[in-house]
Amino acid sequence: MEGGAEARLRASPPAGRREPAAASRPPRATRRQPAAAGSEWQDDRRSSSRLRAVPTTHRHPVFGRIYPRIARAAEARGGAEHRRRLLAGLSGQVLEVGAGDGLNYGYYPAEVTRLVAVEPEPRMRALAEQAAVKAAIAIEVRPGRAEALPGQDGEFDAAVASLVLCSVSDQLTALREVARVLKPGGELRFYEHVRSSEPGRALLQRMLDATVYPSLAGGCHCARDTPAAIRAAGYEIEKLEVVSIRGERMVPTVPHVVGIARSRGSASDEGGRRLDD
Questions:
Q1: How far is residue 271's CA from residue 273's CA, in Å, rounded to a whole number?
Q2: Where are the domains of the chain?
Q3: How many other CB atoms are there within 10 angstroms of residue 246's CB atom?
Q4: FRET label pair with 206: which of 43, 116, 174, 221, CA 20 to 30 Å apart?
Q5: What local confidence, expressed as pLDDT, does residue 32 receive?
Q6: Is 247 exposed, middle or buried, given 0-12, 13-18 or 19+ CB atoms closer than 10 A?
């Protein structure tokens, strides 16, 4: 008998006998995978049996340093009032997408029993964690991105997108992901800067988006039509107000929108009401 055949016979178990199966190992909930520089990845099961790797971190170190100062400067030029209007009347469990350094925390009503604040940029997330300790409501700060949120299907009563839909890589994917984690009838509160209605300024915004602006501003795009994207993602906009951050010196007035939307099918039939109705 040749050596190879003899070795195979010795390795074969006797007839009718089964070799014990190797002990199975439970899958790890989180694992690192190779990723592009500046990204961290983890396996996300959520409520689905399908396992997929999603990035939880997106690094913009320069933008992460300067944005808190820019945001606080805008508070005195209309931003503070816009945030109050955005968050007024919220209650229950709320998810904030792109929480930044936690600037919104002070505007949440006491009726919010739990806030999950999701922020992908490490420096701003660290600031958000520090702010959460001092906040008047219960806050959990988590890494994550709008396109793959750390939440179960139907987990939250409301979601907040505050100056974040301008920077997500795919607005439709992000907005559908928000709808996934909302309870039936849950609200999406949004506060976003948008494309100007003035043709000349809108052209300038599109030129900036196509060239230097996203790389300078942490992925931000200044010419997006976010209300149209919200509708395209399957929401009904119930309330909408066009507001502005007042210009200062060489900085022009920037158009923003503040509104409330729900997934179609659960929205009330009072669509189109303004926030001040």
A1: 6
A2: 41-263
A3: 13
A4: 174
A5: 33
A6: exposed
Q: What mean pLDDT comes out for the span 17-37?
A: 40
Give the pLDDT confidence score for residue 128 in this predicted structure. 95
| Two tokens, residue 91 | 């209650």
The secondary structure of the chain as a DSSP string is: --HHHHHHHHHSPPTT--PPPPPP-PPPS-------TT--EEEE-TTSS--EEEE-----HHHHHHHHHHHHHHIIIIIHHHHHHHHTT--EEEEEES-TTSTTGGGS-TTEEEEEEE---HHHHHHHHHHHHH-SS-EEEE--BTTB-S--TT-EEEEEEES-TTT-S-HHHHHHHHHHHEEEEEEEEEEEE---SSHHHHHHHHHHHHTTHHHHTTT--TT--HHHHHHHTTEEEEEEEEEEEPPBTTBPPEEEEEEEEEETTTS-S-TTB-TT-
Q: Residue 111: what pLDDT?
A: 98
With CA atoms as reference, report the closest residue to 174 among 223, 224, 131. 224
Task: Report, in angstroms and rounded to the nearest whole number, the Rg of the chain calculated over CA atoms.
Answer: 24
What are the pLDDT digits (tens) for 196-222? 777 877 787 778 767 776 667 666 777
Contact 87, 260 (CB under 8 A): no
The two structure tokens encoding residue 7: 């070795």
Q: What's the CA gap between 8 and 215, in Å, rounded?
A: 61
Which CATH class, in words, describes the domain spanning 41-263?
alpha beta
Q: Give the amino acid at 59.
A: R
Distance from C-alpha of 266 to C-alpha of 156, rounded to nearest angstrom: 15
Distance CA 238, CA 254 (A): 23
- Amino acid letter at 271? G
Which tokens in the block code for residue 209? 């988006």
